[in-house]
Task: inverse folding
């Protein structure tokens, strides 16, 4: 049992990256609904502003700051702005991500490096900027949204797979390094999710990708998670009472219901 006090949500400001759409936006809305002041960060500031206004209309507290994870100096400026707007940041949710539908050998090295920068190195730079304050205060939560490609690597998205593996590796090391500090690191690993990422690919791009996934048995059914479902798992990880650390939450879409006359595979 922990001897630390559970702070009210209003005293636990949260920073969410990748908050212009999808899981990041849904996480910002969900945390704000619980009373957490939130800061939304992304390149598409106007979309973050729309979500922030939605939060404010519902009675929540939301701010917006530009964040380009390809720009190291911009990441540092975002960290500083986070403290200016929120004070003591108590929750950092790393949702930002990008995926490139190309094979390893066909991906230009500069594009591969950019994927790693966005999905891994940018997250580490934010952690380096915001987590020392958490350690000094002996409380805080770092939540990293990864992907089930860590467990089931997929072809034709090598840079994404590599960077998400790296992100989970960093989070696992953090869990050991932060033990006893009062700061927790959690991984939320979603399966296929209906977000803007990858959903705007042209058919000539998407079709060969899905064909390869099917060839390797990586498309089991037509179900997809909603961004809100994944955000719910993020909230659970970040709001556990002191004394509990959910180190890994795997979230997968439930399969559509089988027809009643279809064999059930032996289930009772």
Result:
């Amino acid at each position: 049992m922990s001897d630390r006090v559970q702070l009210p949500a209003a005293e636990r400001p949260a920073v969410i990256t990748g908050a212009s759409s999808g899981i990041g936006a849904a996480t910002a809305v969900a945390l704000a609904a619980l009373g957490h002041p939130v800061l939304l960060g992304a390149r598409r500031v106007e979309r973050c502003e729309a979500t922030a206004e939605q939060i404010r209309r519902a009675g929540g507290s939301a701010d917006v700051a530009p964040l380009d994870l390809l720009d190291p100096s911009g990441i540092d400026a975002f960290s500083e702005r986070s403290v200016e707007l929120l004070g003591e940041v108590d929750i950092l949710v790393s949702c930002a991500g990008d995926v490139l539908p190309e094979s390893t050998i066909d991906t230009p090295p500069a594009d591969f490096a950019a994927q790693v920068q966005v999905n891994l190195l940018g997250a580490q730079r934010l952690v380096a900027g915001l987590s020392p304050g958490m350690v000094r205060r002996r409380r805080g939560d770092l939540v990293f949204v990864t992907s089930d490609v860590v467990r089931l690597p997929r072809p034709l998205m090598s840079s994404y797979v590599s960077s998400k593996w790296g992100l989970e590796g960093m989070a696992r090391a953090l869990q050991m390094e932060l033990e006893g500090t009062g700061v927790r690191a959690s991984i939320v690993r979603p399966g296929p999710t209906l977000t803007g990422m990858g959903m705007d690919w042209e058919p000539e791009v998407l079709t060969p990708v899905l064909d390869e996934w099917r060839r390797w048995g990586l498309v089991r059914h037509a179900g997809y998670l909603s961004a809100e479902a994944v955000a719910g798992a993020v909230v659970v990880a970040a709001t556990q009472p002191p004394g509990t650390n959910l180190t890994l939450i795997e979230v997968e879409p439930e399969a559509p219901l089988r027809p009643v006359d279809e064999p059930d595979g032996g289930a009772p």
